[in-house]
Amino acid sequence: ENGIQDTGEPGISDVTVNLRDAVTDKLISATVTDSSGYYVFTGLSPDDYVVEFELPEEYSFTVQDQGSDDSADSDADTTTGRTGTVTLSAGENNLTVDAGMITSPLAALGDFVWYDADQDGVQGSGELGISGVTVKLINPATGAVLRTSATDGSGYYGFGSLVPGDYAVEFELLSGYSFTGSNMGTDDAADSDADVSTGRTDTVTLSAGENNLTVDAGMYSPTPPASLGDFVWLDSNENGIQDTGEPGISDVTVNLRDADTDKLISATVTDSSGYYGFTGLSPDDYVVEFELPEEYSFTGQDQGSDDSADSDADTTTGRTGTVTLSAGENNLSVDAGMTTQPLAALGDFVWYDADQDGVQGAGESGISGVTVKLINPATGAVLRTSATDGSGYYGFGSLVP
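and the corresponding structure tokens:
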């Protein structure tokens, strides 16, 4: 843990590394470290870049810029995983952009934001969570925002892989809501920790390996909250209708978006039976977006006459139409059916054609960060956008034939 590559210290494989434009922060390309811990981005234009290392679970970054040898130190910021600006000149090959990681036990904190119906500051039986509340992890010494998250469909949030130390949490109040009283009762796991004026907690000190799941916030409003949700299922006969015996699909990601701005409000996953829900919502217009798992496609939309039994997901985008919720409404008719017909894929390689003969020659390397669009040839519509990885490869998977 000295921040320097010493003899015998092994590489770490399968770490995601992102290449970004230093001025715009645009993601140019992404790759992963090989079995020995090495990575590379080739075919780059002379420009200013930033390299971003994504931290695997149970790791933290070692100290940055130690010693006098830039080729042997760690260049990753211990909080963001990003390097400083790397300026490349024409033909330059910079192989000094490294990241060191350690496996000392990390910590976590989080828990629950709920609708405090009786305004007593204590989580009562039957009081539901609130979806889509923005939660910030704060450095209490400087006030700097270290990370931002949001409560899921059931009102839960969490920050993991934290270096032991002091933190605070700040909850953003939803429009029309107020914070309930803080530190009420004798059970810290069931009270609200958010200051009624600032939404910020007191300092939380985490020790190595600690998992503190008592950092909560209660809110209330004179307008009863609404909710929506229901079911993602395997449409075995592909008729677009939930038939008896057709099972739910677990672990499907479901996103809740603002219908007017397309802002992501909250995300959740279906449970072991295929059900999901978003609770504690303000009366408003929403869109639900279902993310398609590998090897699935969407079944037909809006089939039959029973809206509670059909699939509401667009077969291309996975999005529903606008769902309008009134105060106190519980809409449990927003469903998605999926089928398992074999899907397809396409892709390959963008390379630097040194001899300009139009053929991939030996030694001609790939080009990183080339934008690639998947097109509907009938309409010209862009269906997806990707970019070549550090070696020049790209691909589009899970395609309906």
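(Above: one complete record from the training split.) The mean pLDDT is 93.
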